[in-house]
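INTERNAL AUDIT FORM
Audit reference: QA-55
Scope: verify that the stored structure record matches its stored sequence.
Auditor: D.O.
Record contents follow.
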Amino acid sequence: MSGGDLTDRVLGQIDRQALARDCLAYVSVPSETGDETPGAHFLVDMLRSGRWEVELDEAAAGRPNVLTRIPGIVGGRTLLVNGHVDTIPIGKSWPARRDGDWIWGRGAEDMKAGLVAMVHAAQALHRMGIRLRGDLWLSGVVGHETPVGRKEGPLRLIERIKAGYIRPDAILICEGPCAIWRASLGSAIFHLTLRAAREPLHTLRVPYAENPVRALRYLLEEVDRLDSQLRERPERSLAGRDQLNVGIVTAGDYPNRLPTELRVTGTRRWGPGSSAAAVREELQTLAERAVVASGIEGLSGEATLEANREPFETFADDALVAALRRSGERVSGAVPEEIGLALVGDASLYANELGVPCAYYGPGYETAHSDNERVSIDRLVHIAQVYALTMMDFCGVAE
């Protein structure tokens, strides 16, 4: 059988109605972050339907990651296909339903569709009797969605990889836009805090000219200045240029009580060539300049970061990117777009902690986390076909 004939037959094994049925069933199973077990067990049942052995590996008490290894023959690359089984709270998006070409409900796009497509892709190869040269791992992790999730699942998976239990040559994550997403900016939540060296007291005892709240003006002016500088810097990543924005400004706790702690909280994103440590130092200098400019005696400034994630970028000529490019073109007749996003996902952890090339390819990222979350069944079929061909291309097919 020629390579083209084999490819066509594999693509024909992707059953649209079965994909839609399983996706709707999965979306109907609640698996909110912190209580993901029902979602993990649904994935287990799908995998066991292919008669594969499945491991439940606790990342936290009662919250298991799901792992399946499909052994290769010999001599091929090992591909780890990955997704998260947890979703944000269901909220107003419930209940799940199918309407024409769409599956609606929490987790439809982010990212149960990707996990269903992952399993169906591997099952298509199994039904064809195709043996891969390299190992294929299918995995679902818990604890992805912050702030409830603390990345327990991804961190446990990293621990297993560092211990040599899994030795992936690349990691494909089944979410995001329907494109080869191979770069993300680094990201952190920052806090710029100014503290006055005095006790809170009634504002009748302090003239406004001496009120520490006036320092906010200088702090925000420094933020303005940094924003201008970042917009003038050249882009260093496919994911775009460095950026920052502010989400919360706080000062004081009562209308006639002197505010002695002021805080500006936001998000800072950066590309290759910088780091969380360099960003914190930059913001610390900014806070200190604001203190000096304010002229308020006894005022101090501090910059802190949390939820730090370093940037990642997988090269265009990487074997996984090339396999996705060829597979996407074979399925749709057009070479997939290659993109970077400021958005941070688990690839930033895997790439930086493990040094393993990573890329995302998903059904879309247009309704994730919204009350109208949905996924197109056409896209579901598309990604399942792309995953199947990528597994064959990257791992190699045994004769």
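Auditor finding: record pair retrieved intact. The first strand starts at residue 55 and ends at 60.
Action required: none
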